[in-house]
Amino acid sequence: MPDASAPQPLVSPSLVGPLADARGRVKRKLRLSLTDRCNLRCLYCMPEHPHWLPKNTLLRQEELLRLARLFVAELGITDIRLTGGEPLLRRDLVAIVEQLNTLRPLGLQRIALTSNGVLLARHADALKAAGLDDLNISLDVRTPERFRALTGGEVQPVLEGIAAARAAGLSVKLNSVVIRGYNETEVLPLADWALAEGLTLRYIELMPLDGRGFWQRDKVVSEDEIVAALQARHPLQRLPRSEDPASYYQTESGQRIGIISTVSRPFCAQCDRVRVTATGTLFPCLFSETGPDLRSPLREGAGDAALMALIREGIWHKEAGYIAKPGYVERPITMHVLGG
Ligand code: SAM
Ligand code: SF4
Predict the structure, then answer these.
(1) Does 287 score more than 90 pLDDT?
(2) Do residues 210 and 228 touch, judged by C-beta distance below 8 A?
(3) Could you identify the atom of ligand 2 that is nearest to the CA of residue 45?
(4) Which residues contact 79 (CB under 8 A, 6 or more apart)?
(5) Are residues 262 and 270 in contact, defined by beta-carbon separation less than 8 angstroms?
(6) Surface-to-core class of residue 98, CB atoms within 10 Å of its CB (0-12 exposed, 13-18 middle, 19+ buried)
């Protein structure tokens, strides 16, 4: 296993072969943020008064597709996840998925989407038909008042979105960020419901990436605490770790529950991800302070070789990650722009 905290050798990235950083971590998964805009205001993600970026600074459909093609055909990316902000606010989302679907002969294996689910009911069939494989839907809590307090929105459309996605035949996983003082007492009721519905649920430890100083260490409910809460009703067996960022546990009936424990058990040493923000900045890591701008060269007519060199160089210098620098991340960009 590569050692993410090992000193970085002073050599340059290879100009051929799979995309890798100097610590030996090969990149297979790309997260493309489609927008900074959102129809919810989750306390742990959005600044209190978000200023939306000018529309002309967001990557256009053809720019997203050019980058996606390069990442797949030339740099070995096999999985693309669309995120945001709320990707369903992009009117061209279905068209983007359709276009990504044409990249399968070049090596693309999975097209995935992360959504808050609010607008999903009306788009689920079209997304399935366009070629979407996987859908992660955020649902921190099912109680309407608590959902409102955390996100500023209503839970009912999300529940309808989940039902529509399943009816459309999409593979659905639920994501729930657990926050002490907000929804930690709902860990067990949410699991009861998800297990009864046959849905895979993943809890997420609260990460220090919000735009309003919301994160505090004592708001983080750790993987061990989540497991202890679940064990009260569901005896769990820990499964061997895979390349998924979540640790998975199996219930006695054979169902799986995941926990993404970025804070208490960082997964940095095996990280195979790379991110492009809604404005086309390459972020090697969720916790990077910045990264190379890809939008300017794209708009100035850069050729494929120049773009690939920029990407390879940016990824090569990927930091060790949260494992080496834990704590609150002070930077101008927040989760809703970067893409969670
Ligand atoms: N709007 C979509 C959604 O909510 O699913 C996609 C974008 S959102 C930024 C992607 C994921 O990041 C969501 O599952 C959300 O819960 C998670 N997220 C946002 N801020 C977080 C934080 N501070 N800690 C942990 N997870 C966070
Ligand atoms: Fe919007 Fe998703 Fe952030 Fe919530 S987590 S504010 S739904 S982008």
Answers:
(1) no
(2) no
(3) 3
(4) 28, 29, 30, 108, 109, 110, 112
(5) no
(6) middle
Distance CA 89, CA 50 (A): 16
Q: What is the pTM of this model?
A: 0.93
Q: Which of 37, 41, 116, 182 to mutate to test the pocket of ligand 2 (most atoms within 8 A of CB)?
A: 116
Pocket test for ligand 1, best of 180, 322, 335 (most atoms within 8 A of CB): 335
Neighbouring CB atoms inside 10 A of 113's CB total 26
Widest CA span of the chain, in angstroms?
59
Question: Is residue 92 a contact partner of residue 61, using CB atoms and an 8 Å limit?
Answer: yes
Beta bridge partners of residue 173, listed in sequence order: 136, 200
Q: How far is the CA of 7 from the centre of ligand 1 (A)?
A: 31
Summarize pLDDT for 307-323 with one digit per residue, the tens: 999 999 999 887 766 66
Instruction: Give the Cα separation of 34 and 38 in Å (integer).
Output: 11
**36 CB less than 6 Å from ligand 1?**
no
Angle between helices 61-73 and 93-101 (to 10 degrees): 30
List of E strands, 194-281: 200-205, 237-238, 247-250, 256-260, 273-276
Q: Could you tell me if 134 and 165 are in contact, meaning their C-beta atoms sit under 8 angstroms apart?
A: no
Name the one residue in this structure whose structure tokens are 């960020």.
Answer: 177
Residue 205 structure tokens: 């430890």
- Alpha carbon 125 to its chain centroid, in Å, reads 22
Angle of the 304-316 helix axis to the 61-73 helix axis, nearest 10: 70
Summarised one tens digit per residue, pLDDT across range 4-22 is 455 445 467 777 788 988 8
Domains, the chain, with CATH or none: 29-338 (3.20.20.70)
Sign, CA dihedral 36-40-41-42, equals: negative
In degrees and rounded to multiples of 5, residue 307 shows phi and psi of: -65, -45
Nearest residue by C-alpha to atom 12 in ligand 1:
340
Q: How far apart are CA 75 and CA 227, in angstroms?
A: 38
